[in-house]
Amino acid sequence: MKRIFLAILIHLLMLMNASAQWVQTNGPEGGYINCIAISGSNIFAGTLGAGVFLSTNNGSSWNAVNAGLTSLTVNSLATNGSTIYAGTNTGVFLSTNNGSSWTSINAGLNNHNIYSLAIGGGDILAGTAGGGVFLTTNNGNNWTTLNTGLPTNTTISSLAISGNVLLAGTFGAGLYLSTNNGNNWSVVSSGVPNNTIVYSLSIIGSTIIAGTNAGVFLSFNNGSSWVAVNTGFPSNIVVLSLAISGGTIFAGTNYGVYLSNNNGSSWAAVNTGLTNTYVLSLAVTGSTIFAGTQGSGAFLSINSGSSWTSVNSGLFNSFIWSLGIIGSNIFAGSTTGGVFLSTNYGNSWAAVNTGLTNIHIGSLAISGSNIFVGTSGGGVFLSTNYGNSWTLVNTGLPSNPMVTSLEISGSTVFAGTFGGGGVFKSINNGSSWVAVNSGLPANTNVKSIAINGSNIFAGTQNGGVYLSTNNGGSWTAVNTGLPSNVTVNDIAISGSNIFAGTIYGVFLSTNNGNSWTAVNRGLINTNILTFSIIGTTILAGTNYGVFISTNNGSTWIPMNIGLNSTNVQSIAISGNTVFAGTDARGVWVSPLGGVGFEENQDETKINIYPNPFTSQTTINFSEYQNNSTIKIVDLQGKVIKSINFSGKEFELEKDAMQAGMYLIQVTDDKQNFTSKKILIQ
């Protein structure tokens, strides 16, 4: 008898992890750029969900520089010479080597959700979400609170330092001033409304500039009083970012970039080439300006804003919530950048948004040459030419609907909506829609729809599953066995098996929804975001990547090598290739591998007992094995364990293997091959 020892297991697991299954595709590029900072020739971009990116060639290409960061949501960046500070959801991080590595500097910082940073001399200020202001004078070795005079639980959205004068812009509580290094604060009541959201603060000489949800305000007396300077702005302008170069002020707004050459007395839009005009961040060096947008990544201007060019190569920060495939065409619906198309299996992507007046894509469905996308606030759009152009098809839908799910059955299209609309049906390819909500509670939010013949299932927010057997004419709750008031993120159907993905895991019904049973063995996180099914194989996208089941959900195993616990919001399968759409990390691709592998067993030669097993099993051979090779292979065809064996039996221990199905492959010294399935419970 021979045991597979821990050392061998660790070695094999290291080998397994060294060869990634998932690979990030080359896009879609762009995403949320919360903050930009410049240090010499280095440009740093802090993103929502993908960490920090560095460009050393003026934005021509970017690389992620995240070693040591425990959060990839970077809200603020600040530089002091060659030292870079990053404010994240898990505190402040310091890099002294251009982002190659980061160190946490959070001693004494009892609120780690950092919204803003400012540097003045040897002082560093950190503004938090709900915890006010913190100060360090020793490069983050320890922090102290500076909250005297600030409202309790204040969110500090911006900070500025000018000598002994400190300014703190809040999220909805106006602007606060300290003239004694933060020992106490007082609200600025002259010129700035008390309920103002102050997104950005900048200083030019003796002038302080505030960007707010009510435009731009200037102070010429160290913040004691302020005057609005909004000539040239639209009436509902929101100033999200500010940057100054010489005597020129740049304002990043919800309407693009604006410029003032007269100290804010008037503003002019400078948006030529800026395809996304929601500008979250700005950074300026000389006549070169970088603009970070909400959803479309970074843009560069080398002529003081006269024209802009997208500079996103290597900047993968897209939120992909929907995927669809027609032949070799892969469509990705982004929640911030519209629809992207790849015709070469993800090697490159291009935006296909002509006619899309709303680029916040939450759902996508394909039938033949018809592609439907559901948007957040813009309703449904249809393309009949592979995304080359889109047409709004909203007749009969509520005003500005949020369409969270789309499903097609023949020529009938169903749309699930948020905001009280419920379910809508179109029998003419979206030309017109009618509400089909009889039996649904009022103001039902529908997150998912699935169709199985004449049966239509609707997964709702806080209401479980509803079933219609008459093409949406009426609905009945089918929630026996489901948790009370559960949210059903997705529904998938394979034959008579109906799967419901919830925050509590996967539930299976084999009787048309009359009853449900939890099937979560092997899942390490039970928040199920999406499903995809091919044959009898089920893939589940979760907050911790992708899981796979080949036995109707009885057991699940992770399929995450290389994916690193990413939120997977959408999955699509083409042949033997899987595509995963993620939060903030774009589209990833993996071979489906050995799913559905077959055993070639010879009961007279090999016997395994018990099978299934929980901790260990015995492999018994009818004949003495001389220098046989025994391999344990997972569903993706990856060799988990491999040993040389001589003898008649050995004990296989579960060790760190996840619950699920595996294949034992035995090759003897005469090259005879036998394989047999095992199931770990």
Q: Termini distance? A: 23 Å
The total of beta strands comes to: 63
Count of distinct structural domains: 3
Q: What is the gyration radius calculated from CA atoms?
A: 29 Å
CATH architecture of the largest domain: 7 Propeller
Low-confidence stretches: 1-20, 594-598
The CATH superfamily title of the largest domain = YVTN repeat-like/Quinoprotein amine dehydrogenase
Please indicate the percent range of residues in DSSP E strands (runs of 2 or more). over 45%
Q: What is the level 1 CATH name of the largest domain? A: Mainly Beta
Give a short account of the largest sheet.
5 strands, antiparallel
Instruction: Name the overall outline.
Output: globular
As for the CATH topology of the largest domain, it is Methylamine Dehydrogenase, Chain H
Total of helices:
1
Question: Mean pLDDT, as a whole number?
Answer: 88
The helical percent reads under 10%
Q: Could you say which structural class the secondary elements and strand pairing correspond to?
A: mainly beta
